[in-house]
Amino acid sequence: MGVKLGILGLGTVGTGTVQLLQDVVGRNLLLQSVEIYRVGVRSLAKIRDVELPADVLTTDLESIVNDPAVDIVVELIGGLEPARSLILQALNNGKHVVTANKAAIARFGAEIFTTANEAGVYVMLEAAVGGGIPVIQPLKQSLSVNRIHTITGIVNGTTNYILTRMQTEGSNFSDVLADAQRLGYAEADPTADVDGLDAADKIAILASLGFDGRINLEDVYCEGIRQVSKTDITYAEKLGFVIKLLAIAKQYSPSSPLSVRVHPTLVPKAHPLASINGVYNAILVEGEPIGQVMFFGPGAGAGATASAVTSDILNLVAVLKTSTTNPNPLLTCGHQDYCQIAPITELVTRFYARFLTKDQPGVIGKLGTCFGNYGVSLESVVQTGFQGGLAEIVVVTHDVREGDFRQALAEIQNLEAIDSIPSLLRVL
Ligand SMILES: NC(=O)C1=CN([C@@H]2O[C@H](COP(=O)(O)OP(=O)(O)OC[C@H]3O[C@@H](n4cnc5c(N)ncnc54)[C@H](OP(=O)(O)O)[C@@H]3O)[C@@H](O)[C@H]2O)C=CC1
Ligand SMILES: N[C@@H](CC=O)C(=O)O
Ligand code: NA
């Protein structure tokens, strides 16, 4: 008996998924029993890159999630609504759901997974984090016997692509963003990528799986890459770092709250994440007893993401073909409690800061005194250039509590010799 798919969305990922499913020779044999039964889109007039019988396409997405013949709904429209309502309707109708929608899962995961568990169906989301990289199922299954203490990822392809080209070609931010949009990497509204919100959604999902609890998205500290300048990329390079947008979830000790955050970070060139370039993503998982495992691969794009979507479809086809009354706990998400998240002021990290100061004798000494007042010790202080008659001083600290560092900065900002502090970045 064939398994009937109702696919919602035929954009970058939807098209990639249909292409993969229309070309099954040499792939897992189970895919041969999958039928693309209905596909929901916004516009029937649009020219598509795939051929589908005319009666398969519809603009009535509700008719798909309510159609008793549909076994699996594949949600690839993105955004919050109507995606949330369509997913819930499909689940309430007893259909399994595959989604690539990290924005909806990070915000409505509790409601969506509770509905799925009550209906006895599954929500699969491998494409939602790391695009084509298998990371959701490994965290739920292969790594779940470990005590995870840190997940550090480059999880947004668009920003990694932009930062890489800014670093290697000295390219301009907006030109590179336009290329990322053209290549299908960026979200419909690319501010979600650029401002770190997409990465925040993804680390919330990974942290929930790695640390076995729900994550309140509002507790995730988030900074994007808009303030990363060519000047900082050049300084970072000279100091032995590259700048990456990192998403980090870390538990410093078994009983302490989690630190979950997204921010541009100076990564030492020798670190495994430093060499992840372009649209590639990587997720470094550290736990006990396994040690370090790194997942690497294409984090966005039609084919790569379609691979993840289709792997979820495949899992569900296997479930439908062997259906038992008891749900498989390695496929469900059953968390009930929320993880406790520490405020960013409690973070202990190294910092990079760039100051523009008046060219006066003793400025570095004054900076050092202010830092010393709050227990901030300095790893390096460099004064290399001048900008518009102002001296440029770059400081890298040793590990410091973020709250103490911010207090020192507030005092420094009031120094007569200080013009401005154009950059402040954390260092891995
Ligand atoms: N692009 C990527 O590399 C990746 C994307 N994702 C996620 O996958 C999902 C899809 O992304 P992507 O394919 O890039 O998005 P696109 O914008 O390329 O495609 C969206 C599709 O959904 C349809 N659609 C959107 N809203 C509606 C609506 N209200 N009613 C009917 N149809 C609608 C559009 O119809 P029409 O074609 O008629 O306009 C289009 O076919 C998102 O959740 C995204 O975050 C995840 C990993 C990687
Ligand atoms: N816009 C996202 C797409 C994949 O999730 C990205 O750039 O990573
Ligand atoms: Na993935």
From TrEMBL:
It catalyses: L-homoserine + NADP(+) = L-aspartate 4-semialdehyde + NADPH + H(+). It comes from the Bacteria. It holds the Pfam family ACT. Residues 352-428 form the ACT domain. Keywords: Amino-acid biosynthesis, Methionine biosynthesis, NADP, Oxidoreductase, Threonine biosynthesis. Its cofactor is a metal cation. Pathway: Amino-acid biosynthesis; L-threonine biosynthesis; L-threonine from L-aspartate: step 3/5; Amino-acid biosynthesis; L-methionine biosynthesis via de novo pathway; L-homoserine from L-aspartate: step 3/3. Transmembrane segments: none annotated. One of its GO terms (molecular function) is homoserine dehydrogenase activity. It is an enzyme of class 1 (oxidoreductase). CDD domains: ACT_HSDH-Hom. Its EC number is 1.1.1.3. NCBIfam families: PRK06349.1 (NF004976). Belongs to the homoserine dehydrogenase family. This is Homoserine dehydrogenase. It comes from Nodularia spumigena UHCC 0060.
